[in-house]
From TrEMBL:
<feature type="binding site">
    <location>
        <position position="214"/>
    </location>
    <ligand>
        <name>Mg(2+)</name>
    </ligand>
</feature>
<feature type="binding site">
    <location>
        <position position="216"/>
    </location>
    <ligand>
        <name>Mg(2+)</name>
    </ligand>
</feature>
<dbReference type="InterPro" id="IPR005502">
    <property type="entry name" value="Ribosyl_crysJ1"/>
</dbReference>
<protein>
    <submittedName>
        <fullName>ADP-ribosylglycohydrolase family protein</fullName>
    </submittedName>
</protein>
<feature type="binding site">
    <location>
        <position position="34"/>
    </location>
    <ligand>
        <name>Mg(2+)</name>
    </ligand>
</feature>
<feature type="binding site">
    <location>
        <position position="36"/>
    </location>
    <ligand>
        <name>Mg(2+)</name>
    </ligand>
</feature>
<dbReference type="InterPro" id="IPR036705">
    <property type="entry name" value="Ribosyl_crysJ1_sf"/>
</dbReference>
<dbReference type="InterPro" id="IPR050792">
    <property type="entry name" value="ADP-ribosylglycohydrolase"/>
</dbReference>
<keyword id="KW-0479">Metal-binding</keyword>
<keyword id="KW-0460">Magnesium</keyword>
<dbReference type="GO" id="GO:0016787">
    <property type="term" value="F:hydrolase activity"/>
</dbReference>
<feature type="binding site">
    <location>
        <position position="35"/>
    </location>
    <ligand>
        <name>Mg(2+)</name>
    </ligand>
</feature>
<dbReference type="GO" id="GO:0046872">
    <property type="term" value="F:metal ion binding"/>
</dbReference>
<feature type="binding site">
    <location>
        <position position="217"/>
    </location>
    <ligand>
        <name>Mg(2+)</name>
    </ligand>
</feature>
<keyword id="KW-0378">Hydrolase</keyword>
<dbReference type="Pfam" id="PF03747">
    <property type="entry name" value="ADP_ribosyl_GH"/>
</dbReference>
Length: 264
């Protein structure tokens, strides 16, 4: 799970100031966790303690209302309506929020069927558009397959066959023309491709951020997959934890204790 958070932090300052190169300071004091990490941790908390996942997303977002970069507009409206009515209803989004917060799901289950079911549940409480669900499921499945020791080629072929994503491009080939796209269909394939093109965990993150666009979310999704495939260097794991408040550190530690970290 810490791979999602590391990607988010590394990309945080480039979300609105894109950088089309892999050469940049990886972690600096100016960077920090965003809504991507907050909601990823909410997913982990839900998986650890059960209940309604929408309640966890609502609780975390209202407890931590001002992350770096803020929450998305439609998600903020979902929060506002929940506060006013006490009801948390999905709003048909195909945004990439469903994919950026799903990382823990990929670690928590023993079968592909269970993983896809939980990914659907985690998405559908807000992002119940078919593309929103698809993006979450594709991301979670990549993590599951990477944990299971599958090769990059196996992961690519499985995701293409199951979700009809076209991954026959390279990040080098699209970098100059890729633009901001906060939908799942405009983010998840690119994030998966960044993982496929990367040579180690950090290189995967750098590749994702170098595309531009919604940099922190791209890197969050890529990082969630790259962690399961490559593991996390202990020094990077420790650095990421230093960015997090105590409660977040406790959730990470509890989740890794139950489901296992991937430290290289």
């Amino acid at each position: 799970m810490i791979g999602s958070i590391l990607g988010d932090i590394a990309g945080s300052v480039y979300e609105f100031h894109n950088i089309k190169t892999k050469e940049f300071p990886f972690l600096t004091p100016q960077k920090g966790y965003t809504d991507d990490s907050i909601l990823t941790l909410a997913t982990a908390d839900w998986l650890l303690h059960g209940g309604d996942c929408a309640t966890y997303y609502f609780r975390y977002a209202t407890r931590y209302p001002c992350p770096l970069g803020g929450f998305g507009g439609r998600f903020r409206e979902w929060l506002r309506q929940g506060q006013q009515t006490g009801q948390l209803r999905p709003y048909g989004s195909c945004g990439n929020g469903s994919a950026m917060r799903v990382g823990p799901v990929g670690w928590a289950f023993r079968t592909e069927e269970e993983t896809l079911k939980a990914a659907r549940i985690s998405a559908a409480c807000t992002h119940n558009h078919p593309e929103g669900i698809k993006g979450a499921q594709a991301t979670a499945l990549c993590i599951f397959l990477a944990r299971d020791g599958k090769s990059k080629e196996d992961i690519k072929n499985t995701v293409e066959a199951k979700f009809d994503y076209d991954l026959n491009f390279t990040c080098d080939g699209i970098r100059d023309t890729y633009q901001w796209d906060a939908t799942c269909q405009g983010t998840v394939p690119q994030a998966i491709r960044a993982f496929l093109d990367g040579t180690d965990f950090e290189d995967c993150i750098r590749t994702a951020i170098s595309l531009g666009g919604d940099s922190d979310t791209l890197a969050c999704i890529t990082g969630s997959i790259a962690e399961a495939f490559y593991g996390i260097p202990p020094a990077l794991h420790a650095q990421a934890m230093h960015y997090l408040p105590t409660h977040f550190q406790q959730i990470v530690a509890e989740f890794e204790e139950k489901y296992g970290p991937k430290i290289h």
